[in-house]
Amino acid sequence: MSRAAVPTRFAAALERTDGTHEAWRPALAVVALLAAAVPFALRVARNIPGSPLASLAGGHEAAVVVGTLGPALAALGFALAATDRVERVAFLGLAVFAPLALVADATYAPAAAGVVLSGAIVAWRRLARARPTRVVPLLGRPLLAALAVAALIVALAASVGVASPAGRQVGTLLTLAAAVAAGLAADARALDWALGIALAGVVHAAGASMPYVAGAIALVGGGAVGASLGTLSAGLGGLAAATVATARHRALVPACGALLLCVAAVPVTVSRALAAALGVALLLGGEAT
């Protein structure tokens, strides 16, 4: 095959809108979730007392590479599957900008800006395309998008030095508010919320009994700053309700979106912001596969 034919083939794949790529979406969502979960799981595990991973050297850098490139490749796949041209370009933006953060320090800020802008555009397009008939998701979906995008902007701006370090706390609160809104966006019912509240209670009790461990996991594992244990528990409860609600409807893609928001936690790095942007997009997408 000639070199000139490669761009042509790629462009032709982008132009296909006959639903051929629909079957990719569940696999892409799982790939993005598993890859993003690698650095999150490592951060959490290294802060558990007695963990053998506490002294692991060099593992964090490799985990960040996996947690960035995996979701970026998934974003490229979602771009191929997108039928909306604007959404397609935004997914391509996520796939292109996020890996730039791994190249050099000079490319980190542009990568952060590109991920935020691309994620906001994807959320906007998905909100415009789907309009639920029930009041709760009708209000919860734009609330989730607005809070999540605001969290991306504030948390990343503080982490790259554009905004005051106090923005980390504001970004944390916005992220936790978005996590609660995720349950509303997923149209969680009473049983879903009951399970979410039960999990929140377990987390709160565990955190109260081991405050130093809980604080270390929240700070290092989740990037949370200045949030109370109750607020953290409420955010996890909202994400649990969203996960249960989507799983109950056998909607794998939105369920992965809710879990992506969990492992992304507070988006203080480009890799976490990419996971959060994908999580919002998948949760808003409404795919029923």
TrEMBL record:
Sequence intervals crossing the membrane: 23-42, 62-83, 89-122, 143-163, 169-186, 193-219, 225-246, 258-284
Top-level taxon of origin: Archaea
Domain DUF8068: 25-284
Keyword Cell division: no
Assigned keywords, A-Z: Membrane, Transmembrane, Transmembrane helix
Signal peptide: none
InterPro entries: DUF8068
Name under which the protein is recorded: DUF8068 domain-containing protein
Upper lineage: Archaea, Methanobacteriati, Methanobacteriota, Stenosarchaea group, Halobacteria
